[in-house]
Design brief:
This protein has 366 residues and is mainly β. The protein has one helix and 23 strands. The strands form two sheets. Strands 1, 2, 3, 4, 5, 6, 7, 8, 9, 10, 11, 12, 13 and 21 form a 14-stranded antiparallel beta sheet that branches. The chain has a nine-stranded antiparallel beta sheet with strand order 17-16-15-14-23-22-20-19-18, with no helix packed on it. The protein starts with 27 loop residues before the first strand and ends in a 16-residue tail after the last strand.
Length: 366
């Protein structure tokens, strides 16, 4: 289909119909990401929905770390109308743009269902543009905005139902779009033997009572920094404070690629420098089963067929050895200067990373 409902709105960015992006790059995507937690180690839910117009696919997932299991519902179908933000039992409703969204996973024979509404605690923040070219091929050309907020509603996991109240159920969300590897893998060609993304990735959107701090860092395997951000954003709309170049000090669990705790230092701010202590409360091994790249049979944008819905229940001890080589999302606790907050404590170590003593793509922490 060429003409769709969004063509009736003045939102076009090129001479193409909305169904057709201005680029013909197969890796064009447009995605929602959310997480939900109770500021504790009780459970950690991660969910998202993406559209891949040049692949003709849309898919969605919800992944809940609950006790010693990860419960996943995932769905995929052919993309027809980009205004329909629904794939199988999973749907997103934008109630008020940039302020209030509802996410539903309808009950099925699988182990997760929910109906929750997210409200922003802070204004949407435009994050740095990410651009990576490797041996002639543009691998990442993405834009993203991020927000922290609070949840209300209900979530059921493996028969346990939780009332979600905004006083204690917090979470981050982001919207991203552009170019990144999606769908069926491309041939490596000249890039054979190289990682799509290498080195270290950190992403910590931290939420405190009256403000948020967003920290991001991507370094190559030798420690060369490609991307960074450090900003403090006040809930009342006061001017954001740029915190200069952030410096990290991570402690890995021996024999793993898993962070136990971190100290992030901000030494270039206008006022007195400060440090944030970060610790993991509960990891979610999001790289397995959700489409984030480790599984060969289910990747974001991969064609699965029409109206496909699947459920998985994964044992944490069984998936950890492989999942630690991908992105790991934790519920994190963050503290500095008398402030205690919670949020996403996300990291990935891809291939060798000399500053942490990872000598090759299979190395684990000493």
């Amino acid at each position: 289909m060429t003409v769709s409902s969004w063509d009736d709105y003045p939102v076009h960015q090129s001479s193409q119909f909305i169904a057709h992006p201005a680029t013909s790059d197969r890796n064009f995507y447009d995605r929602y990401y959310f997480n939900l937690h109770s500021c504790s180690d009780e459970l950690f839910a991660i969910f998202g929905l993406g559209q891949y117009p040049n692949l003709g696919v849309t898919d969605a997932f919800i992944d809940v770390r609950h006790k010693d299991k990860q419960h996943i519902v995932r769905s995929s179908t052919e993309l027809v109308d980009r205004s329909e933000i629904k794939v199988g039992p999973i749907s997103i409703e934008v109630i008020e743009p940039l302020q209030k969204l509802r996410v539903v996973c309808e009950p099925t024979e699988h182990t997760v269902s929910m109906d929750v509404t997210w409200e922003a605690s802070m204004a949407a923040h435009a994050e740095p543009h990410q651009y990576i070219r490797n041996k002639g091929r543009v691998l990442f050309d993405t834009q993203r905005f991020a927000q922290n907020g609070k949840w209300s509603g209900e979530i059921t996991v493996a028969g346990d139902t939780y009332e979600v109240l905004p006083e204690s159920w917090w979470g981050a969300r982001d919207r991203s779009w552009g170019i990144r590897p999606v769908g069926e893998p491309e041939g490596d060609g000249i890039r054979q033997g190289t990682n799509v993304m290498s080195g270290m990735w950190n992403y910590f959107p931290m939420q405190f009572d009256d403000h948020s701090i967003l920290y991001m860092c991507h370094e190559q395997e030798d420690g060369t920094r490609l991307l960074e951000e450090a900003v403090r954003i006040w809930n009342d709309g006061s001017d954001s404070e740029w915190l200069g170049r952030p410096e990290w000090n991570h402690e890995m669990i021996s024999g793993t690629r898993l962070l136990k705790k971190s100290t992030i230092s901000f030494n270039e701010i206008p006022g007195p420098p400060f440090e944030i202590e970060c610790e993991s409360l509960l990891p979610n091994w999001v790289s397995i089963g959700t489409g984030y790249g480790i599984d060969s049979d289910w990747r974001h944008g991969m064609h699965q067929g029409q109206n496909i819905v699947q459920g998985l229940v994964l044992d944490v001890d069984e998936i950890r050895p492989l999942a630690q080589y991908g992105i790991v999302d934790h519920v994190g606790r963050f503290s500095y200067s008398g402030n205690v907050g919670y949020g996403l404590y996300e990291h990935g170590f891809f291939g060798p990373f000399a500053p942490m003593g990872l000598d090759d793509r299979g190395s684990l922490a000493p």
